[in-house]
Amino acid sequence: xxxxxxxxxxxxxxxxxxxxxxxxxxxxxxxxxxxxxxxxxxxxxxxxxxxxxxxxxxxxxxxxxxxxxxxxxxxxxxxxxxxxxxxxxxxxxxxxxxxxxxxxxxxxxxxxxxxxxxxxxxxxxxxxxxxxxxxxxxxxxxxxxxxxxxxxxxxxxxxxxxxxxxxxxxxxxxxxxxxxxxxxxxxxxxxxxxxxxxxxxxxxxxxxxxxxxxxxxxxxxxxxxxxxxxxxxxxxxxxxxxxxxxxxxxxxxxxxxxxxxxxxxxxxxxxxxxxxxxxxxx
Length: 282
Hints:
Blueprint: H1 2-20, H2 26-31, E1 39-40, E2 57-58, E3 65-74, E4 78-82, E5 91-98, E6 102-106, E7 115-118, E8 121-127, E9 134-138, E10 143-151, E11 155-156, E12 169-178, E13 183-191, E14 197-206, E15 212-217, H3 225-229, E16 234-238, E17 243-249, E18 261-266, E19 271-277, E20 279-280
Parallel strand pairs: 11-17
Antiparallel strand pairs: 1-2, 3-10, 4-9, 5-8, 5-10, 6-7, 6-9, 12-13, 12-19, 12-20, 13-14, 14-17, 15-16, 15-18, 18-19
């Protein structure tokens, strides 16, 4: 009996290792894959087709962000072309304006209006159902509609053209490290020919959150939220996309050479998610 118990125990341990490590795809077959299916990254804040050679697919997901998808304008009652919204979009919205009369927009005959407003007016209307037909617009004056889609794929922006201009200098760089959450990737800071500074996040990932900010700190390598809070920092900009490759032009008056690290900060949670120590370029 003892030998049988030992054998059963060894078999259970072996099964646990096979399933836990997903050896031979055992865990995925039994419980489904833990990772989401790969999807193509976005390459612009405007929805445009990426070159086939760059259409890399990834399982990484960003904090959901808004991308411009389509736009329409007119000066009378009409029907638009079909709205182009990605099949994997979480939701979409219309940013609209009108000048006179009443502005009524519907997605199908007899359907409840998506927009019904007296003009002049402007607003934002969130829509969860994917559009299947052109929009019907009824009004008697000029109007505009901008469609945006909310997606959660990485945004892989190419470097700004100015980053490779002859008089551009790379002045600092660093690699992201974890503080309270996951942070990976590289930070590069440039001085552009017009005297302004630009920051590039290269192939980065930080734990998604809607309230993250990119900031500059005078600390060389902050290791905790408490340590970070003991020194003043400056805001570069809010971070709406949390994975990919992004470019930021620094606000005027901020000289990154006066700072020693880049920090991903969440004000609502009072937490430093990740940081990167900046090393001056030679």
